[in-house]
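Course exercise 7: structure representation. Students receive a sequence record and must write out the corresponding structure in token form. The form below is the worked example handed out in class, using Transporter (141 residues). Read each field label carefully; the graders check that inputs and outputs are placed in the correct fields and that the protein name is recorded exactly as given.

STUDENT ID: A-19
EXERCISE PROTEIN: Transporter
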Amino acid sequence: MILLVGILSRRVIGQRLLRWFEAVMRRIPLASVVYDSARKLLDMLQTEPGSTQRVVLIDFPHRDMKSVGLVTRVIKEQGTGRELAAVYVPTTPNPTSGYLEIVPVELLTPTDWSVDQAMSFIISGGAVAPDSVPFTRTADR
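STUDENT ANSWER:
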């Protein structure tokens, strides 16, 4: 009974503190943009992989090198309708900082990695890695 009361009170108090903190952050002009963006990124990283979120390799910073990226959204190019992927490229060892690249979908190299596997690879600086990676796109083989 005491344990249950403790869990419930911690959860209620924690949620109230979080709501208060979010309300304060939303009142600060630049901080609100940064906070909302970071929260959306963290929410995206915690969701199960689906059609709009997957781990890929992209040619970055140039064609002969690959970076691990997370497709966060697919958008259309104005005029042509060509599909472009918004790819977040987390940096080592802190994946909360990184780059946003807009990449044509046909230039993505798909992987079968989960987000957890990708994050382990990135945070460990490549020390925690699968035995093989799909370095060459299927169309290039």
